């Protein structure tokens, strides 16, 4: 399969980056050029990512981080061992990120929330950034992601593994948008070995084949695209969930295949116990409202993510809707109304009640709309009621 643009040139990328960075920064003295006094710099050319030794905090490092605006108290809470390191690269990191457009405040925030970032060498940073740029459109986009979630970039120190995973996942047909979402939402995917990720892909392909699917590769791609966390779960967990859904609802192979490559993919990474418990509570709640087993199956097939909702929260939402004049039949036909918070549902019902909105006549689609669309609809209803 042809690889996406950007991914094709990843292999061997580090061979051109390392010399380039060496020419850019050849000594610790150069790293102090960002404006921090030489006495506060704790950078050396070699950076260790080994287990921190037990001992006192590095006072020079503390001074340097404080001068940079880093929240040292937060560092102690999150990764205290970093503060005992003798060799760090906080000034090199700051210089590098400033060059990519990050402000002083953003750099301080990144280090405060993910202190281990200061143990990454300049060479490592250059290589990793180039790999991310094969997926993202601009430096500013990456800086924005680091500002929100620094762990996604700095968690792993293995650039070779990252490179191999980007190439492997791209070979599955996942596009730049999919890789973008994986890097930002489930970065642990890229800490896995390629072999571990391959095992999950092959498992999904086998599931498709066993259920009579015609394109196992496409099935695996669709499931991963719909559930970004699946590659950081075990095949044992996913298999247990698939077997449970099939046995509980007595699904045929075509029914199960359709569910899994549809919205059902989104629940495959759940804990099997959590899945069972929520389904049991859902059965009990719907039975108390006069629903049959076939109604429960219909709800799960149409809206499987209902199983994400805790039993108390689900019960509260259903009670709120029923109290507001919505029927259980309407909820089963339009289950996405359950995505909204109880507070949101209550507020909308109150506003519609004031306008004497007739749910039996007009249905409940109005409840499943964005705030902007809902307000526009309310405005039209208010005008028509005044005429």
From TrEMBL:
Subcellular location(s) of the protein: Mitochondrion
GO biological process: termination of mitochondrial transcription
Keyword list, A-Z: DNA-binding, Mitochondrion, Phosphoprotein, Repeat, Transcription, Transcription regulation, Transcription termination, Transit peptide
Name of a matching Pfam family: mTERF
Gene3D superfamilies: Transcription termination factor 3, mitochondrial
UniProt keyword annotation of Repeat present: yes
Source taxon at top rank: Eukaryota
Regions crossing the membrane: none
Annotated GO CC locations: mitochondrial matrix
GO molecular function: DNA binding
Segments forming a coiled coil: none
Family recorded in the similarity comment: Belongs to the mTERF family.
Known function: Transcription termination factor. Binds to a 28 bp region within the tRNA(Leu(uur)) gene at a position immediately adjacent to and downstream of the 16S rRNA gene; this region comprises a tridecamer sequence critical for directing accurate termination. Binds DNA along the major grove and promotes DNA bending and partial unwinding. Promotes base flipping. Transcription termination activity appears to be polarized with highest specificity for transcripts initiated on the light strand.
Subunit text: Monomer.
Protein name per the record: Transcription termination factor 1, mitochondrial
């Amino acid at each position: 399969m042809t690889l996406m643009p950007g991914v094709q040139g990843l292999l061997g990328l580090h061979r051109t980056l390392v010399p380039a960075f060496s020419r850019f920064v050849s000594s610790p003295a150069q790293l102090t050029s960002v404006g921090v006094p030489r006495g506060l710099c704790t950078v050396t050319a070699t950076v260790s990512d080994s287990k921190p030794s037990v001992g006192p905090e590095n006072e020079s490092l503390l001074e340097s981080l404080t001068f940079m605006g880093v929240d040292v108290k937060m560092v102690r809470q999150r990764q205290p061992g970093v503060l005992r390191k003798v060799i760090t690269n906080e000034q090199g990191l700051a210089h590098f990120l400033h060059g990519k457009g990050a402000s002083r405040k953003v750099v301080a925030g990144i280090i405060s929330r993910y202190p281990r970032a200061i143990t990454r060498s300049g060479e490592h940073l250059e290589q990793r950034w180039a790999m991310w740029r094969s997926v993202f459109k601009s430096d500013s986009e990456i800086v924005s992601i680091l500002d929100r979630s620094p762990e996604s970039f700095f968690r792993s120190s293995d650039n070779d593994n990252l490179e191999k995973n980007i190439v492997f996942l791209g070979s599955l047909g996942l596009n730049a948008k999919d890789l973008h979402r994986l890097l930002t939402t489930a970065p642990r995917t890229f800490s896995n070995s390629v072999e571990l990720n391959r095992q999950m892909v092959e498992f999904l392909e086998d599931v498709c084949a066993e259920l009579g699917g015609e394109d196992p590769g496409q099935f695996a791609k669709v499931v991963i695209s719909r559930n970004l966390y699946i590659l950081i779960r075990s095949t044992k967990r996913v298999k247990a969930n698939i077997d449970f859904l099939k046995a509980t609802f007595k699904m045929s192979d075509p029914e199960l295949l359709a569910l899994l490559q549809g919205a059902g993919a989104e629940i495959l990474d759940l804990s099997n116990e959590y899945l069972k418990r929520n389904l049991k509570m859902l059965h009990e709640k719907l039975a108390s409202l006069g629903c049959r087993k076939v109604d429960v199956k219909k709800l799960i097939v149409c809206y499987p993510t209902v199983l994400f909702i805790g039993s108390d929260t689900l019960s509260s939402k259903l009670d709120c809707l029923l109290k507001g004049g919505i029927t259980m039949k309407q909820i089963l036909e339009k289950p996405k109304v359950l995505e909204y918070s109880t507070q949101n549902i209550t507020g909308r019902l109150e506003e519609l009640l004031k306008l004497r909105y007739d749910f039996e006549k007009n249905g409940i689609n109005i409840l499943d709309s964005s705030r902007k669309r809902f307000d526009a609809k309310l405005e039209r209803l208010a005008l028509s009621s005044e005429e």
